[in-house]
Specification:
disordered C terminus; Rossmann fold; 10 helices; 6-stranded mixed beta sheet; 2 domains; 267 residues; 4-stranded antiparallel beta sheet
Length: 267
């Protein structure tokens, strides 16, 4: 018997006025796997992410995390339940250091009250020191950014900024790590490094990962399951090999099959 999915999205509809961003999308994310969502620009991928994380409220459908319906919970509650994400465009505090940006990811686990946090004493000090030790041990070393941890984020290359954003999400101890185009804008070396980190998170730490990505080579190499959106609808879902050969996917996103003659050639 197959275990229940860690996250289940069922028949989600999202509209903005007369525009249908999502039309009956269903998706299952299994624990310990890498699930990729692909599709052309405007297909509804980021809308799906924003719906899962609670930034958008769908008109219809449900989302269930570990058997608990989260369809009407606020974004901060979903984050506390284990949904952590990165963004398509880097969303870091550029005037802060790498370490301080990453520590912000652990705010949902801090129990000190406002007065203790302002005074930085007692429980607040103890929690922050413990969080810093954990981040340095489990996140900064893992992502190989120890050499820049005290630098301002604004001084870093784009590839390193994306890595810091991943580190901040990891500091939340996510049950599901949601990555919105983690290698967009990166060169080949940076892309290979990020793909290695994502694979290591799954293989060494058993992390469940849901990602949006346009780099088809990376998607097909590292994903266990691929879902394809087009015009807000799910047109294919399955293993990378199944999706790669699906005629609707080839037509909508991956291009004409090699076996077909190019336009104006052949019969």
């Amino acid at each position: 018997m197959n275990p229940s999915p860690l996250l289940s999205v069922e028949d989600v509809h999202l509209r903005f006025g007369g525009i249908k961003a999502l039309s009956g999308v269903s998706l299952q994310v299994k624990a310990g796997e890498i699930t990729a969502v692909i599709g052309p620009n405007g297909a509804g991928k980021t809308s799906l992410f924003n719906t899962i994380s609670g930034f958008y409220k769908p008109q219809q459908g449900s989302m269930v995390l570990e058997g608990q319906d989260i369809s009407h919970t606020k974004p901060n509650v979903r984050a506390a339940m284990g949904l952590a994400r990165t963004f398509q465009n880097v969303a870091l505090f550029r005037g802060m250091t790498v370490l301080d940006n990453i520590k912000l990811g652990g705010h949902n686990r801090m129990a000190a009250n406002t007065l203790q946090a302002m005074a930085y004493w007692g429980k607040s000090q103890q929690e922050e020191l413990a969080l810093r030790e954990e981040i340095e041990r489990d996140v900064i070393d893992f992502l190989e950014i120890d050499h820049v941890r005290h630098q301002s984020v604004a001084s870093l290359s784009y590839g390193l900024q994306k890595r810091v954003e991943l580190a901040r999400a990891l500091a939340m101890r996510p049950k599901i790590l949601m990555l919105d185009e983690p290698v967009a804008g990166m060169n080949r070396e940076e892309t290979e490094d990020m793909a290695r980190f994502i694979l290591d998170l799954q293989e060494e730490r058993g992390m469940t990962i849901l990602l949006i990505e346009h780099d088809m080579g990376m998607v097909m190499d590292i994903s266990n399951h691929v879902a394809v959106l087009n015009f807000g609808q799910l047109i294919a879902s399955g293993t990378p090999q199944h999706v790669r050969n699906h005629p609707d996917v080839i037509e909508a996103y991956l291009g004409v099959r090699e076996s077909q003659p190019a336009s104006g050639q052949g019969a």
